Amino acid sequence: MTLTEIKQAARTEAFARRKAAFAARRPEDGARLIGVLAEHTGKTLAGYMPMRTEIDCLPAMAAHGGPVGVPVILGAGTPLKFREWHPGAIMVAGEFGALIPESGDWVEPQVLVVPLLAFDRRGFRLGYGGGFYDRTLEGLRARGPVTAIGFAFAAQEVAEVPIEPTDQPLDLIVTEAEVFAPVR
């Protein structure tokens, strides 16, 4: 089996686990993220507009004490850019159906809340396979310090995410059950 096939099989399994966790979610599941982001008040934050069964980071984004952006896909094989967002912003459909602000300034995040399908204790994440966050984190980290926070349901944890050299690790993982720094 190739690495591509291994990752695709892992994605299929991870989607099912996340779907089950999403069905059992509680309104307070995202509360830990608000506390974690309080340590980053004043810094530019990038969150995401939750799709399908992703855990909802909108309350934490709305509570953040600083600028907030959401990802915009400009094209295949490119890093993400981030458009400024605030509660009540006019949103339109972007690539893959993700909502993006209709207008607004571009921001460069110092802290990113990253969606995922699965994660492991080493801090690696399994995404959707486009490489957008890996390219983005690589570029941001080349310019200076940035904190990448994986946000997920605890049920999304796996023993080991299949990785390749371009995969960027997370600095912190937040679930409804705990917050931990990866062991590398």
TrEMBL record:
Gene3D superfamilies: NagB/RpiA/CoA transferase-like. InterPro entries: FTHF_cligase, FTHF_cligase-like_sf, NagB/RpiA_transferase-like. It catalyses: (6S)-5-formyl-5,6,7,8-tetrahydrofolate + ATP = (6R)-5,10-methenyltetrahydrofolate + ADP + phosphate. It is an enzyme of class 6 (ligase). Its EC number is 6.3.3.2. GO terms for molecular function: 5-formyltetrahydrofolate cyclo-ligase activity. Keywords: ATP-binding, Ligase, Magnesium, Metal-binding, Nucleotide-binding. SUPFAM superfamilies: NagB/RpiA/CoA transferase-like. Its cofactor is Mg(2+). This is 5-formyltetrahydrofolate cyclo-ligase.
